[in-house]
Structures are given as C-alpha cells and as structure tokens.
Amino acid sequence: MPHGPAEVGLGPWPGPWPSGPGSEKYDPDLLRDGDRRNVVDRYRYWSMAAIVADLDERRHDFHVAIENWQHDFNIGTIVRTANAFLAKEVHIVGNRRWNRRGAMVTDRYQHLRYHRDAADLAGYLAQRGVALWGVDNLPGSLHLETARLPRQVCFLFGQEGPGLSPAARDACAATFAIAQFGSTRSINASVAAAVAMHAWVREHADFEEAWRG
User: Fold this and answer.
1) 69-85 pLDDT tens trace
2) With 90 as the cut, is the pLDDT of residue 39 above it?
3) 8-state DSSP, 159
4) Which residues of 139-173 are buried (b: 16+ CB within 10 A; e: fewer)?
5) Residue 73 in contact with residue 98, Cβ under 8 Å?
6) Per-residue pLDDT, 49
7) Strands (E), the chain
8) pLDDT tens column, 96-125
C-alpha cells in the first residue's frame, strides 16, 4: 500500500504572498519557511490561531474526559483522537500534568479544561446541558452497539487497568461498554475512546463536512 510522500507538507510559498481579505489567517513564518505540520491541506500556511478559530465554527457536540490519577500515557492518544473527530472540549480530571507525547501537538488545537474531580466535571457539564456518560465494562452498562447516544454528551474514561474510579461512576448518568468477544476482559483505554467517539460520529456527524485532505 502507498504510504504517501516522503516529505510531509509544503515548502516556502511560491510567488507573491497572499494579500487582501482573508490573508490575515496566514502565518508569515510558514509562508517564508514552508509548512511541514501534520495538518490537512486546507490549513497549509494558516496560523494556529486561525486554524483553531475555524475549527470552533464546526466542532461537534460531544466532549471527552479522562481521569488522570496515574499519569496514564493513553491520555495523549485520546486527545489526538478527540482532535481527529473534532470534540468540542477535552477535560482532564485529577492531576493537571499529563503525558502529552501521544497527542502529537494536537492538544494545541483543542480546548482543554481541568477539573479537580468527577463531581466538579459533572457540575460543569450540567450547567451546559451535557450528559455525562462513562465508558467501562461494568455490570449493568449499556451496550454501545445498541445505545442511542445523546447529541450533547461527554464520554468519561478511566485509567488504563482500574477503569473508572468509584467517584466517577457515581457522577455518571449512565455507563456503556464496548462489545468484546475474545479472552481478555478489556481493551486499551485509547482504543475504547476511539470506538466511542466514532460511534457518536456515525450517529450524529454531517459527513459532507469531513475533511479528506
């Protein structure tokens, strides 16, 4: 299978630089030096602020929240996936410090919020009419495959291994599990997050708005 070009992005802008209406979105440094960032072609040479402003016009109605008690390395990967599916906000519950390596700089394009505990997160969401649904294979959890996901919802994920904390379970209006058929009792937290977000996308997203570049 092809793996794309050997070099990502574009070199310095050829010819006269953009001017006139709309030219303010371009970053002079990128125009001069080239844009090798991992962004879709639509955003080549755009400043980061301009990209975030454009994303804000199209963000989806789901949020993603991750408990952070053990500095889980999955958090960065979950943030990266939240960017790919254009989550409205990403919430870190617990410790403010987290391993950003897996995010691959995508955290700069997301709105990150921090909460001391799950109750604080639940209160914030309730004020905005957003349901808090936990993702864990707990007794009594709904089946993701048959559940009707609210349009305005926040998916809360626990730490790799222990899953949702007791306090997080109490704060959730519902929990759902992802169907598994093998011998292991759980799947990786970042994989579960990707499955959950894509389930929301399949139910609610406008696919004519999806970027393919």
Assistant:
1) 887 788 999 999 999 99
2) yes
3) B
4) eebeebeeeebbebbbbbbbbbeebbbeebbebbe
5) no
6) 98
7) 62-68, 90-94, 112-115, 131-135, 142-143, 153-157, 174-177
8) 999 899 999 999 999 999 999 999 999 999
